[in-house]
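Case study.
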Amino acid sequence: MGLRSQLLLLSLLTLALPWAGCQTIQEMEKALRAGQANAFQATARAVAARLGSDPQSIAILKSQQTPNQSTPIYANTLSAEIIIDGYDDDWRNYSYTPQSLPSASDDFHGANFQDTDFQGTVTGGIYGENLFLFIQVKDDQIQYTTTTEFAELNFDHIILHTENSPDLSPQQYLITSGAPGYITARHLGAGKVEHRIQGVWQEWQGGYQVELRLPMSWLGAKLGLTIASPEPTLQSTTTLSTQIAAALPIITQQDQLTNNIEIFANDSSRLTLISNQGWTLAKAGNIDASALSVYKPRYLMENIYRIALRSETLPTLNNPSQRGRFDSTEAVNALAGNEKVSWYQYESLRIGRGAIPIYDHSSSHNTADHAQPIAAVIIEQSTDTILALTNSAFNRLLLYSFLTVGLASFALLAYASWLSLRIRKFNAAAQRAVDDNGKIYNGFPVSKNRDELGDLSRSYSKLLQRLRSYTSYLETLASKLSHELRTPLAIVGTSLDNLEHETLSTNATMYRDRAKSGATRLSSILNAMSEASRVEQSIRASEWETIDLQSLLTELQRAYTDIYPEYSFEFHSPSTNEPIYIDGSAELLAQMLDKLVDNAVSYSKIHSPIRLSVRILSKYIVLSVENDGPLLPENSRSQLFDSLVSLREKNHSPHHHLGLGLYIARLITEFHQGHIRGFNRDDGSGVVFEVRFPRHSS
Amino acid sequence: MPRHIAIVEDEPAIAENYCDAFRRNGYEVSHYSSRPEALGAFTKGLPDLAVIDIGLGEDVEGGFELCRELRSRSAELPIIFLTARDSELDTVSGLRLGADDYLTKDISQVHMLARITALFRRIDALREPDKTTEQEVLRGALRLNMDRMCVEWQQQVVDLTITELWIVHALAQHPGHVKNRQQLMDAANVVLDDNTITSHIKRIRRKFQALDPQFDCIQTAYGMGYRWNSP
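After joint prediction, the assembly is written out as follows.
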């Protein structure tokens, strides 16, 4: 992977930035919510304290207290008069939930006796001065009363318990019907018909239902309900009742309290007072989803926010305004004396709901045990403003982090590109510095930068310089050696020459002759060794002229045929008549070809052909000398043209091969600005040496 | 009277060997190891021939100085330069110090003596100019006198060394015949490699062309050698 891709990958680390930002926003949101919760809890506490120290409110609240397991009748607020017809049409306009009455049977069948065939619900409502009740009973056997004797109540009936006599003693009224239609209400005890209780008895699929109207002024504040159905088999009556033979306060919304709490409510919060059993006593304020929602994010953004901020899905707000009863955890906790806050989702809003217990502060402060709450305040508030804040913060975070990531990536990419450009230039220069033959060129660009790349470039350049000087030292080693050896050789030679004129014994003559031949060989070796430097000299002294390769090679081919009669020489050229011009020195070229041909001859078998050829390319003229014979070894190709290197198997050596022939050929080629290389033929039959010259410009 | 040869050479072994060889051939030899020593002797009396080593000890220029000294005293005194480095030959001969030949130290005795003989013969010929049995080779504008060891081209004297003269003689004797390098080397009484022959030929050509820019009689036969081409 190139530098750029590596750095680009690294730049992905900057994505940690937006992630960190999201975490921050989440924390911020939690903190803000906690702050808001504290705020509205404070408001609720204020309300609770206010009510708890107001004797009037306390009195009202206490009047609405009911024992824990009881089922008081909750009178909802009606908006119109109910027509008493025994049907629940009118009631359906409201979505009030009916209260079901528990079984009140205390006979020996046990407390767990539950007869699912006998169930009853009651729904209450107040309009004007009347209390309306709708009682629905599930009973598979309806027994109407036929008599006017009420000693034993062996028929389906309803008993109303009240405390509306002047002395507040419990009264009971029996409600019966002989057939579907108007009911008759009688005071149980006195036996008098009570005309103030009006109602209609109707039958329905599962049993019977009764709709009653009772004037509030006559009824008072308490009411109890018992529904009875005779069981012939059991010879007892099974009853359902609000509380065993007792009247409970009618729980209804109290205007007085509503007025009291209305000053605390505002547009974005809703206050509710609940009784000690969780019945709504007062309501103020409003949280309307559609009106309040000032912030409507687009669907896509909303999803992004949710994923990014990992916001919790909140439970849906149950709206007890319909049922009239609060039984959510906050309410339950508050009525037990603990404060609690929970968060809910209400359509597109998030609502926070808190509950504070109301204590009776008017009593003495020295009560030993913590008093029970007489009621509770529930406050609900939307977190719309917080949502708006976090969303806008998130927007900005996204923008800034994209900017930063983009900038960082771009900067890193640019820097990586620049770095990789420098390294590539260095690489290209390094490759140009040394060619295939191992020759080291001058002109390696040295960087002036102070950083690591610059250091690398400088050390590389130093390396090349040292290599170059060492190589040139090696190249001249041979001739230097020969220079040094010449003087001692002269001593030997001249001494031996003198020895020739002395009379010697046969043996001495033989030794002298051997010494002489050895000295001669040594001399020729030295000559060969210094030949290279002589070539360099003659190269320097040679004259540049325009040469016709065609005639030169033709002449040479004839010459070689004479000199090496055991071999055959072929000459191939594109055309035999046209001259092929290059610039150079004819003598040097002839010398080079002499060396190449000498090389070819010494490595090929007798009578095998040696081919000289010329080819014209667009920019070059290519001269080649080919011979059949042993191949060049693969991996020492670059050493081939160095001095004193002899790589192939020789079959005979006409004279000393110090391996200088190819070196000289290379020197001459380079003088002509050409390039020489040697390679094996594709079919492995022999070797080709190829010299390339730039074409004569005219 | 035997001829007097002076050898100025700092390497004793080589010098002694040459001295012995020369004495064996009937010459009188004096050996000097340094320039001051030689100069001192030359002021007393000039030798008949001088063989000078170029690199005399530490003094690189010593040989050149001696040569100039001798030449200033005698224009005809034969001087032979010796050098250990064959790379210097070109440079040295280019200096045109007026020596008669430039040789490498590993030259064999036989070749050295051949040169000395030829040089003395030339001196004799110069001293007796009216001998008519001189050997001359005439080829067109070339006039080669082997006794006097002098060459004329278009009636102008060409200043060739002994080696060069022998080469020209070998070529011109059979005009049109190609002489290969080995043959030229033999004729020149020298053992050299091909490149040195090439440089000799070049030098010869340059000397002729200095007198006559149109000179083209020495032709290269590529791969084979050289030939004299009389127009």
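Observations recorded in class. The longest helix of chain B spans residues 109-127. The helical segments of chain B are 12-24, 35-44, 62-73, 88-94, 109-127, 162-173, 181-187, 194-211. We will return to this complex in the next lecture.
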